[in-house]
Amino acid sequence: MSTLKVYIVAVGDELLSGRVLDYNTHWIAKRLSGVGFNIVGASIVPDDKEEIVEAVRRALSKADLTIITGGLGPTPGDITLEALAEALNRNLSLNDDALEMVKDRYRELYEVGHIKTLEMTPEREKMARIPEGGTPIFNAVGIAPGVMVEHQGKVVLALPGVPSEMMYLLEKALPSLERMSGPVFVSVEDTVDVGDESVIARALREVMAEFPEVSIKSYPSGFGGKVKMRIIASMKAEDREGAGKHLREAIRKLKEKLV
Description:
alpha/beta
């Protein structure tokens, strides 16, 4: 099975201004790489419908899975799902399952005294309007459901921008996403007693020629005989445990060549 490609689109004026760190893209990339996905690109776009539509269409042209974060809430500036519907040439409509999810969350918040009314205002109902054919994902951390949409053999997953909500919903969606994925990505980290990166270059070439499926990168932290250089060996494989042994063997060979 080939490795599926992922493109991440982070939505939010606050990300572009630097007021908020784009933690979501970093976390999603790290999490999905670990289960075998290939992250092929990422972009940050403002809360602007045309910009989001363009970003989604670009992502769909490059990847099998597009993940969008941010812009699912009740405010007028939360326009991600509206833009997603336009990008996919679909209508944005009230989804009965999503509406029940939103009502359930407000009911829970009302019962513990966090809100004063259960009235389904237009603003609250807005979070249940999703692209036609989409599947809502219950959000037990926040309120706005996540949304998964299949489109021409590809998948778009829209998640809230609040990191705790994004992480929770991505984990809920992960079993479905893993069924799409190929080999896992495995890495092993170690250090070598080499202070000059030029010295290790030849040994790296020789080891990677012997282990062509393994990539080894070195990360110098300075110069001098007492400096330890960090190295990371990585590969994609079906068997995580077997890959780990293979990577450790490659590192052992590298160290032998540096003695």
